[in-house]
Each structure stands twice: as structure tokens, then as C-alpha cells.
Design goal:
The complex is a heterodimer of chains A (46) and B (240). In chain A, 85% of the residues lie in helices and 0% in strands. With 46 residues, chain A is an all-alpha fold. Classes of the chains: A mainly alpha (46), B mainly alpha (240).
Amino acid sequence: MYEALDQWNFVIAAYVVGVSATLAMVGWAWWDMRRAEAKRDKVKRK
Amino acid sequence: MHGFANPTRFLKLARWLTPLLLVSGMVLVAGSLWWGLFHVPPDRLMGETVRILFIHVPSAWLGMGGWSAIAISSLAYLVWKHPLAAVAARAAAVPGMVFTAVCLATGSIWGRPTWGTWWEWDGRLTSMLVLLFLYFGYIALSQAVAREGVSPKIAAIFGLVGAINIPIINRSVVWWNSLHQPASITIGKSAIDPAFLTPLLIAVLGFSLLFGGVVLARMRALLAQTQAEARLRRMALEAA
């Protein structure tokens, strides 16, 4: 059976997966680093 | 090299290098993906789906690169017993896992219109899936090691043993019949047209800078957690 596929749907899906996973990873790593360093500085001041 | 293994010197360097790597990586990734999406011609055989190359290939390289970083840092830890090497190995695990997962997901999406299937249990795909499971195991093990406060030696050995999968992934398309194409880029040679190769190399550089930035951010977070916990322990002992 011939199945017509719009290739752009697959391209967009791959870019959404790749870009959102990368942005989430970068955002999480940056936020977690800032949080950990703020906690360390707070403990140091005690 | 040993000079940078000093946590104070490392933090001084990482403080300005982390945002620099992340921002330059973002700029290069955004530019290369824009180029790949809107300025690269469709491929003669794969049509528009060739654009998935600019996410899939960097992810695959960094998925394998992440475990190579774990293995090298683990070896450095086992040989020189420097805690910063263990921290570096642990820091490379999450970005390596994310890029391996992105590689598998984008490969599956690419496989449907080009091979007619989302998944095939062949050498390349299966060994890459094994790598993802190795990352899960390594992350769980290194977190347990840190939580229990025992030596990271067991995680380092796991990191070294798991590296056996890297050459298997690399050679899988040669050793077994595979739907996956053989390597298009080897050292000093490329079978890819320059119209695709230039944005691909920029994407690889951009994603690599992001990878480096995330590893540095993770190392800073892990070091800060360790320093805060050590300080709290000292304060509890002084109060007792």
C-alpha cells in the first residue's frame, strides 16, 4: 500500500525534540548550578 | 594539566568559561539549525528529511563523546585519585544521556520516512540503545555512591568497563548488516557534499560547546553541593 508522507512533519518533529531537550538540559544545568552555589554561599556566611 | 585539577583554580577558570561556552554554543547551534532548515537544498535521495542530519549527527557524536569523557575521567581518577576527575565523570553523564536519547529519538523519526520503520533491532540502533541504558545505570550508581558517601571507585570502574560499547557502536555498521548507512565522515575524509558539510560542522561545534558548558555547570553544582555539605557537617560537629 502506498502511503503519502509529508517529509516536513518529520523534520519539524525531530527539531522540536532536539531543540527542546537541549534547551531544557542547558536551563536545568544553569539553574541547578546557581541554586547549589547560592546555598553554599549562604552556608559559608553562617 | 594537573594544575587545573586544583578545585580553586578550576572554579576560577570555570566561572567565566561556563557562560562563554553556553552563549557561543547557543549562537552557533541556532545559526547552523537555521541554515540547515532554510538554506540547504533537499537531498537527491532523502529529500527534505536530510535536514534531520544537523541534529541527529551531533547528538550521536556527543552521546558517544560523553561516555568517552566518563571513561577518560574515570581512568584519571583511578590512576591519580583526584576527586575532581570523579566530579568531571559524574558531570558528563547527564548531557551524554540527553544527547544519546535525542540521537535515538531523531533517528527513529528519520527512519520512518526513509526506511519505512520507526525502529529496527540492528547493530547500530541496538548498541546505541545499550549506551542509553549504560548512562541510566551510571547515573543511578554515581548518585548512590555520592549519597552513601563511599569511594567513587566503583562508579569509575563501571565508567571504564562501559567504554567497551563505544568501539562496538562505531564498528556496528561494518560488522553487521544494517539499515543504517556507514560513516560518511572519517578522519580527513568526507562523502558529504559541502552544501551539507559546512552547516553540519558548525552544528557539531555549537552542540560541543553547549556540552562543554553543561559539563562545567554540572561540575560547579556538584562541587558547591559537596562544599556546602562539608561545611554543614563541620558546624554540626562543632555544635555537638
